């Protein structure tokens, strides 16, 4: 127990970095994932094809490989960053957006076809149908799976600890090395700070779902 | 179907060729191993460890098998390196030729136990002397003083001393002592990695300016890729005295090894052992450190 209290500044620093990685990657993934889902249902065949290929490749690739690609392969190709957090955000948001795209697509599928037909019949363009009629309804129905994906994202951010980023998990390893006699407590501390992010997220999911749910 | 098979076959051939190439590239160190002249019928006080080993005509020496330049076992099964040369020199003084030495792999975690259990007679394995270990085993020496150093890209001229890394990205292993030193004493920005070899890519890609840990580990990396990396300097900025581990309270044996080390320092065999092995990368030949005759 003492080990957690003594090293609270490190835990806090790691916590903030984990939070930073999760929030930034989460926002990027939500935006990009929704775009991918929109492309998947668009009338343009090339967009549909791109979205499908992207989603299928990325969600079937282990996250570690995405990290390896962002942190090691991209620099080899001449795309270097001095901050490894950038590589972590690229890997996490690229990976997570594939899952978000699939969740949003399932939401789109849940919107009755009649909605789109009615919108078209009053003269709306595809972009209007999508942004005004389909997506607002689709997103509401998929709040729980979206939050699940974001919770997974928070936990997945720990992989960054193995790729040169000192976040919560990275500090955990450091503290475990320095306090060989209290490894269990060190890890309990790490778990606690993860729960500090993920449990409120789950709670948020319930609240939002109750507020925006559509009775069908 | 047939075309598919042949194509697969050729792929396989290509893959195995590539593997063979990379393997041969790995075993690049070609340090010459010498067999020092063996003492003929040396005499020792009866009951001493020297007398026992000498009359048995063989000795078991623990060393590392994965530490390039110090103790590394190649594909031919014979370990090479500075530690190995020191072991051979000591064996020779006992009248034991190099081919009668049994080499046992000792890793950092098992060294004290191997000595206590008698699995090895002595250990020469980049074995830092410290008080915690001295409570378990005895140390002859030190025979070399390693220390923390910096490795940089071959074309880097801006980093020559630890003070140069202030505010710069430096890679080291998460939680290691060198990592703490470079941050706390020299103000570097730590890029933490799981292993020292994981630091190589960021250095190559110039995402970090340097890698830091003991100079002997870094020298091992340099020996594998001398065209890519170099040591920032031959100077080290911490002290890690390497000793020869042996059973606790065998003072006679310990003092005898100390005498031999001093003799190697005088007759030039210490210098030669260095030049043949680690000296190929770390240019400054070490002075034999003052022996700690505790």
Provide an overview of this structure.
The complex is a heterodimer of chains A (216) and B (294). Chain A has helices spanning 2-6, 8-41, 45-59, 63-76, 84-110, 113-121, 126-141, 143-156, 168-178, 183-212. Chain A has 216 residues and is mainly α. By secondary structure, chain B is of the alpha/beta class. In chain B, the strands form four sheets. Chain B has a five-stranded mixed β-sheet, sandwiched between helices. A three-stranded parallel β-sheet of chain B has the order 5-1-6. In chain B, 43% of the residues are buried. Classes of the chains: A mainly alpha (216), B alpha/beta (294). Chains A and B meet through helix 4 and helix 9 of A and strand 10 of B.
Oligomeric status: heterodimer
Question: Could you name the ranges of chain A where pLDDT drops below 50 across 5 or more consecutive residues?
Answer: none
Shape of chain B: elongated
- Greatest interface and its participating residue counts: A-B, 20 and 15 residues
Low-confidence runs of chain B: 1-6, 9-31
SSE run of chain A: HHHHHHHHHH
The overall pLDDT average of chain B reads 86
What percent of residues of chain B are in strands? 15-25%
Largest sheet of chain B: 5 strands, mixed
Task: Report the sheet-strand fraction of chain A.
Answer: under 5%
Percent helix of chain A: over 70%
What summary fits the major beta sheet of chain A? none
What is the N-to-C succession of helices and strands of chain B?
Answer: HHEEEEHEHEHEEEHEHEHEEHH
Query: How many extended strands of chain B?
Result: 13
State the total count of DSSP E strands of chain A: 0
Distance between the termini of chain B: 76 Å
| Overall morphology of chain A | flat
CA-atom Rg of chain A in angstroms: 20 Å
């Amino acid at each position: 127990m003492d080990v957690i209290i003594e090293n609270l500044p490190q835990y806090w620093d790691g916590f903030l970095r984990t939070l930073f990685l999760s929030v930034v990657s989460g926002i990027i993934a939500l935006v990009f994932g929704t775009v991918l889902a929109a492309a998947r249902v668009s009338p343009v065949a090339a967009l549909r094809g791109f979205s499908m290929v992207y989603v299928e490749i990325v969600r079937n690739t282990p996250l570690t490989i995405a990290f390896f690609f962002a942190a090691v392969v991209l620099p080899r190709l001449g795309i270097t960053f001095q901050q490894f957090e950038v590589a972590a955000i690229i890997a996490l948001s690229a990976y997570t957006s594939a899952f978000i795209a699939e969740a949003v697509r399932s939401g789109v599928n849940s919107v009755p076809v009649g909605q789109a037909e009615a919108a078209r019949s009053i003269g709306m363009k595809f972009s209007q149908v999508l942004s005004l009629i389909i997506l607002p309804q689709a997103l509401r129905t998929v709040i729980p799976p979206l939050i699940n994906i974001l919770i997974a994202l928070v936990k997945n951010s720990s992989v960054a600890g193995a790729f040169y980023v000192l976040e919560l998990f990275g500090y955990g390893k450091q503290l475990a090395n320095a306090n060989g006699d209290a490894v269990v407590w060190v890890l309990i501390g790490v778990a606690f700070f993860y729960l500090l992010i993920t449990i409120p997220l789950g709670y948020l999911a319930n609240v939002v779902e109750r507020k925006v749910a559509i009775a069908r | 179907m047939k075309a598919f098979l042949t194509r697969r076959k050729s792929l396989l051939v290509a893959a195995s060729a590539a593997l063979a190439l990379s393997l041969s590239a790995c075993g690049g160190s070609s340090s010459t191993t010498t067999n020092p002249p063996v003492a003929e019928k040396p005499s020792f006080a009866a009951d001493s460890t020297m007398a026992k080993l000498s009359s048995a005509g063989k000795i078991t020496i623990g060393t590392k098998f994965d530490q390039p330049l110090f103790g590394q076992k190649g594909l031919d099964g014979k370990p090479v390196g500075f530690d190995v040369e020191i072991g051979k020199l000591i064996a020779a003084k006992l009248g034991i030729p190099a081919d009668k030495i049994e080499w046992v792999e000792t890793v950092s975690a098992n060294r004290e136990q191997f000595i206590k259990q008698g699995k090895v007679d002595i250990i020469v394995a980049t074995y830092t002397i410290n008080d915690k270990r001295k409570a378990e085993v005895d140390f002859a020496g030190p025979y070399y003083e390693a220390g923390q150093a910096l490795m940089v890209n071959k074309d880097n001229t801006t980093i020559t001393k630890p003070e140069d890394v202030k505010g710069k990205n430096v890679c080291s292993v998460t939680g290691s002592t060198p990592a703490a030193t470079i941050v706390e004493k020299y103000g570097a920005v730590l890029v933490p990695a799981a292993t020292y070899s994981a630091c190589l890519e960021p250095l190559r890609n110039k995402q970090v300016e340097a890698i830091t840990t003991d100079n002997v580990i870094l020298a091992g990396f340099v020996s594998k890729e001398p065209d890519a990396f170099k040591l920032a300097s031959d100077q080290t900025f911490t002290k890690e005295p390497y000793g020869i581990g042996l059973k606790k309270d065998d003072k006679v044996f310990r003092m005898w090894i100390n005498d031999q080390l001093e003799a190697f320092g005088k007759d030039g065999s210490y210098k030669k052992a260095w030049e043949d092995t680690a000296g190929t990368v770390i240019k400054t030949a070490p002075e034999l450190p003052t022996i700690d005759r505790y």
